[in-house]
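Morning. Coffee machine broken again, so started the prediction first thing and wrote up yesterday's gels while waiting. Chain of 225 residues, entered below exactly as on the submission form.
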Amino acid sequence: MMKRFAKAPLALLALLSSSLAAQAACDYDDFPKMDDMLVASLGGDVQWNNMPLAGRSFRVPASVEQVKAFYSRQWRDEVDFTRFNDWEQILHVDKRCLMMVQVKPQNQRFSYGRMLLTNPPTADAANRPLGSGMPVPHGAQVISDMRSDDAIRKGRMVLLLNEEDLHVTRAWYEAELRNQGWTLEERSNQPNAVVLSYAKGRELMSVGLLRHQDVTQVLLNRMDR
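Came back before lunch.
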């Protein structure tokens, strides 16, 4: 029977931790590639849930659905489909590592994206709490923590879930970030959603709040100018 991974990224993380017991390095030679896929190196230091990610960018004459179907076949349906910050994501865990494809449509003929894979986490990374150093309300659950560091810009993107309602969560962030010295530059209100934009020195922070199925989803995006 084919095994389909749990939908929650935290379940994937737990599965990955046990899968890395052999501590074998991941290799891009094992990453499936579509015909006519143009692949280039992706600079910078990227981490996903405290695990280092090696990266490649790609462009391919295929739709997003065709890309998803290709990797579903290649990985024998042992995949998890998610969506993160407008990226369609395809996740796969094998005996050595986690492989992730992030893809978007470029136009009617082409799609583009990134191919990411992990190396075994260090002991220090494994012990560092997800969301450490970011504003996380007490009791909130951190789902995903992605860091990027290159010659141009450092960035951090954290996705979390909070059981408090949208207005309580918004009020918490407005008070907490004000106390941390951030200046609110813009607030966008929509039904069941709020986006707060902040600045502090050379740093920018956006807080996206979405109420969905009795939980408030929070997407934090922090970066240098």
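The radius of gyration is 18 Å. Going to sketch it on the whiteboard this afternoon.
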